[in-house]
Amino acid sequence: MPQKKQYLQESLDKAIGAVNSNKLSISKAATEYGVPRTTISDHVNGKYDNHLNGPSKMLTDEEETSLINYVKYMAERGFPLTRRMLKAFVISIIEKSGRSTLFNMEKGPSNKWVNKLLNRHLELSEKLPEQQDKARRRMSNVTVVDQYFKLLVDTVDSLGLTNKPNQIFNCDESGFSGKEKSKEKVLTLKGSHSYQQKVLVHGHITVHMCIAADGHVLPSFLIFDGCLPHRSFKDGVPDNWLYGSSESGTWIPKLFENWFDKVFIPFCGTRRPVLLIFDNHDSHISIDLIEKAKANNIHIIGLPPHTTHLLQPLDVAIFGPLKEKVNQLSVTLGNLNKCATIGKAKFPALLSTAIDQTTTLARVKESFRKSGMYPVDRSIIPNSQLAPADFNKSEKTNKETTDVDTTTITSNGKLFISFDLLY
């Protein structure tokens, strides 16, 4: 009968990593980590690269613990990870370790590996989101809102920001396609159709905005679809605006990191700590961004999914008037010049004018007040706009389409608890 191995998988992984990084020879690694020299040699030389029964754990115990802590932290702060994001973070951990792995470093660990990981941590579960309207109705309930406000109160108190509105921020993005309909009525003859001359060229441009509870507005970030305009597009626009592009004109994580580096950190002020609150879309979060936030004493809270229409200042009182103003300006230009067109290159100037006319100091402050974000006030959100606390329990649950769990937002867990362990 062959002798049972007397070493831990973690010791083998460390030994292989030490040899691959040229820190130790195979013999010295075998002595230091208590792993047979031939075993290390076989793994280093690729003997087990195609071994179908390879180890079920490709992370060290410490790395797995920190990864699970990170998953929990993100869920508690309002940024639950998808399976795709989890795989990307595993790849980052392996890359930083410098050791060999059986993982495909382009695709990450297999679904089978992720299933085994989740089976070892039964406190975690995967749940499918529902359609927007139903999810919004479920998440906009008393329990979720109460939990969010408890987290907000605890965070603001612990950071000492109760009377520091200039250190509390909200950011979000909104898209413009040129197809927006006006909410302003027009006068016309009875029984006739009414048409309005608009000059916005169809496409997709996203504006990312950030506002502070004291009323000031940070520079905007415009995302164009496809590429940046070929002609000059910065005329009549503040010099500190930032520009980028993506295939569809929408957010991707690298763009958000770019905004965080070049706009938020330089323009949020020098006083710390800072609290930044935004929705939990996965295009906003990455390990690199969290590390930058930690290094700059910037703390992040994610809004509960499908509640931004109630809890996010930009959605509550800024984006609506801004879009209507953009529409009004485009209609005015259409009436003045039937041949005028506003394409990608001219849109920034139009948007800049609309922002100047709508994001007044008073309106920005009012947006924070109406959302209960500052001053922190749970009572500002009337229960009449929310489903009852037992709403989720009152409806039948389909196990195959389980709704978003209302415990996604909780108030326990320390800020950045897992990040020191990740690297």
UniProtKB/TrEMBL annotation:
Top-level taxon in the UniProt lineage: Eukaryota
CC per GO annotation: nucleus
DNA-binding region: 26-46
GO terms of molecular function: DNA binding
Family matches, as Pfam families: DDE_1, HTH_psq, HTH_Tnp_Tc5
Record domain HTH psq-type: where: 1-50
The protein, known as: DDE-1 domain-containing protein
Species of the source: Mytilus edulis (Blue mussel)
